[in-house]
Specification:
The structure is a single chain. With 695 residues, the protein is α/β, with parallel strands linked by helices. The protein has 25 helices and 17 strands. The strands form three sheets. Strands 6, 7, 8, 9, 10, 11 and 12 form a seven-stranded mixed beta sheet that branches. A five-stranded antiparallel beta sheet has the order 2-1-5-4-3, with helices on both faces. Helix 2 runs antiparallel to helix 3 and helix 20 runs parallel beside helix 25. The longest helix is centred in the middle third of the chain and has 62 residues. The chain is flat and about 110 Å long. It starts with a helix and ends with a helix.
Length: 695
């Protein structure tokens, strides 16, 4: 049928000489591409609309527009076979080009941030922990929703009170600091005349001195005062108001800092009492009920306001604490980097090794702080493996030597001699605990010493119990101050935060990790003498001869060079096509590959990669996902359409480590996935895995 349509309705077509089979293939392919692009574009739009909080939401909208525009151009390619709408086709292609350029311009300045996202393994760990903490996150979301509802109710009630009641605020001495318009109307005075004056301006001489004395005695003692008061209008006439005075007392204080008075004009009621005695009781009961409601609402509003203020305070302290936690390993990274710039070659390797260790600590701290709720819910998983305690201690020593030297402190590490065993535990968490404790001691010690002591409590054939103690000659703490330790966002007292900074979260994290390991941090401290933090942990032990090389996974057992050499075995002269648009990423990946004796050809985008494939043979393709001109997804689709490359390994490299992105890579035909920043050992192992499978 398509053959007949071609013959009868395509006198203008540039493909009139095509065979019917070729035309059918072309039309069906364009139709499928249009449908796929439309589905993907609509999916991205729906995802972006339902996840407006995502940092890259705008980018999702741009990608959706780009993909939809591409789909429409494919549809127009079908239409122009029969209808000569070439200007429409060209216009749509121009729109697609503009959307493409807009996407690139938006993406370009943000590319470095995308490239610095977490590695695949780290993301998987965080993602797993996030799934486990969904209930906690939903609970927090519900709490935030309740806070917003309470805020809304507060403003609604405040608005209602302002319209219906006379509202006055005074300081502790009774000087008026705020009045609403209702108060001005009933008193006859302007705001300018009232603010700065006292209620003596309105005194009517109806009430006795004992009446006012009782008022002040009540509210100064922190109690709510409620009475009917007769005041004098500016013109000399009298009016009655039913008054509620609420003392406002800060937490921890025993005296009010100000008073809030809510009053209702009852002049007409007082007149009615004189005229109709029988109505007075009814009016009194109605007023009493209204008073109770006002008092109840006032308390509710204060409770809501206090809760909101506490949430803001906790957020501010948490952000400040994150800075404190991040600066500890960052100090080591920056310091060792500066030292390494001027150090001889024989020392640079040691500096670089410790920079890598501090970087790992920084990543771990960031993950923990950014998802602190997992610690509260107990969902942190320890990574248990065998490690060398001596190398952990050496790494810690490098982190703090320069810092304590700048403060003229003596930093000493005492560890057990002849401890020729490996310990099974979470070395990264143990190092983080000790870093936090040592950093805490160094921060609060102005002169003297900081000491880390590790001692053997007991040792058996396959188990050892060690005590870790961090001692200092710092400012010390009282017993009351020690009770504040290990609570979130708290320190010994407010002056500590002002003098030394931080919020105490480091100790909280350390305590929780120690508890996960089966111990508990204890503190002994004397003011102006110093402090000692200590805990005891048990470890399974093994000798080097009894543990296979594959079980000892930590870098303390194998150097990076050794692991790279093992991963590069059997890969010499393997031909790799590296498709990557960023020069720095090209340099990193290609130098790792060439150092492992692989042959590397670099393409800046998917289009260049397709051109190189036409004239060259490659064993493996490393494909970046997000690139200008042609991205990795589109390039992979085109490559897989060629039966010649059906089995050619294509390994994705991306800073986007979401499960959706990995599934998308798999959907377009990619063989595997490597997360950025690139782990060179993992990259070589992936290449070996797929190269050997291909052979």
């Amino acid at each position: 049928m398509l053959s007949l349509i071609q013959s009868d309705l395509m006198p203008h077509g540039f493909c009139i000489k095509w065979s019917s089979d070729l035309l059918n293939l072309y039309v069906v392919s364009d139709a499928l591409i249009f449908l796929a692009y439309t589905y993907i574009g609509i999916s991205l739009i729906l995802f972006a609309k339902s996840h407006k909080e995502l940092e890259w939401n705008t980018l999702l909208w741009l990608f959706a527009a780009f993909i939809l525009a591409c789909g429409v151009t494919h549809l127009m390619d079908i239409v122009t076979f029969w209808l000569p709408f070439y200007w429409v086709d060209a216009t749509l292609k121009s729109i697609t080009a503009l959307v493409s350029v807009g996407t690139v311009l938006y993406l370009a300045p943000r590319l470095s941030k995308l490239l610095n996202m977490h590695s695949h393994e780290e993301f998987e760990a965080v993602h797993e922990e996030k799934r486990r903490s969904d209930d906690q996150l939903l609970f927090e979301k519900h709490e935030r929703w309740e806070i917003e509802i309470l805020k809304q109710k507060y403003f609604e009630h405040h608005y209602a009170l302002d319209k219906a009641a006379i509202f006055v605020e005074t300081n502790a001495q009774g000087v008026i600091t705020f009045v609403n318009e209702h108060f001005c109307r009933i008193s006859g005075y302007s705001k300018e005349e009232l603010i700065g004056a006292t209620h003596g301006l309105l005194k009517s001489d109806i009430h006795t001195s004992e009446f006012y004395g009782n008022l002040w005695t009540t509210i100064k003692n922190g109690q709510v005062w409620n009475e009917e008061v007769c005041n004098r209008h500016k013109n000399g006439s009298l009016y009655w108001v039913d008054t509620v005075i609420v003392p406002i007392i800060d937490e921890g204080e025993d005296k009010p800092k100000k008073y809030i008075s809510i009053r209702f004009d009852i002049t007409d009621r007082k007149i009615a009492e004189k005229l109709v005695e029988e109505k007075s009781r009814e009016l009194y009961l109605l007023n009493l009920d209204l008073e109770k409601q006002v008092i109840q609402r006032t308390h509710e509003l204060h409770a809501a306001l206090a809760k909101a203020e506490l949430a803001v305070k906790v957020k501010a302290e948490f952000l400040a604490n994150m800075s404190h936690e991040i600066r500890t390993p960052m100090n080591a990274i920056i310091g060792l980097s500066l030292l390494g710039m001027n150090a001889p070659i024989d020392k640079q390797h040691n500096y670089l090794r410790n920079i890598a260790g501090a970087s790992e600590s920084l990543l771990a701290i960031l993950n923990d702080i950014l998802d602190f709720s997992k610690l509260e819910s107990g969902n942190v998983q320890l990574e248990l493996d065998y490690f060398n305690l001596g190398e952990v201690i050496e790494n810690i020593a490098m982190l703090f030597t320069e810092e304590v030297r700048r403060k003229a402190l003596t930093f000493t590490i005492i560890e057990p001699s002849h401890l020729n065993v490996l310990l099974k535990g979470d070395a990264l968490r143990l190092k983080q605990i000790l870093i936090n404790l040592i950093n805490n001691s160094a921060k609060f010690t102005q002169k003297g010493f900081v000491k880390l002591e590790i001692s053997v409590i007991s040792q058996h054939e396959k188990e050892i119990q060690l005590q870790f103690a961090v001692k200092d000659s710092g400012i010390g703490m009282t017993e009351e101050q020690q009770k504040m330790l290990f609570h979130s966002f708290s320190q010994a007292d407010a002056s500590i935060s002002r003098r030394f900074g931080g919020s105490g979260l480091g100790l909280v994290i350390s305590q929780k990790f120690v508890e996960l390991m089966g111990g508990k941090i204890t503190c002994k401290s004397t003011p102006e003498v110093g402090s000692e933090f200590f805990f005891t942990l048990s470890f399974e032990t093994a000798t080097l001869g009894k543990i296979s090389e594959t079980r000892i996974a930590h870098p303390v057992k194998k150097t990076l060079a050794q692991r790279l050499a093992e991963a590069a075995e059997s890969l010499e002269n393997v031909r790799v096509l590296l498709v990557e648009d960023t020069p720095l990423n090209q340099q990193v990946a290609s130098e790792f590959l060439r150092n492992a004796k692989l042959e590397v050809t670099v393409a800046d985008n998917g289009q260049e990669a397709l051109a190189l494939l036409e004239h060259n043979t490659f064993d493996v393709i490393l494909m970046d996902v997000q690139m200008p001109v042609m991205d990795g997804f589109e390039a992979t689709k085109i490559i897989r359409e060629n039966a010649q490359f059906a089995e050619l390994p294509i390994i994705a490299m991306s800073a986007g480590v979401t499960l959706d992105e990995q599934e998308k890579c798999q959907h377009v035909g990619m063989s595997d996935f490597i997360a950025k920043p690139i782990n060179p050992v993992q990259m070589l192992e992936k290449i070996k895995q797929h190269f050997i499978k291909q052979i």
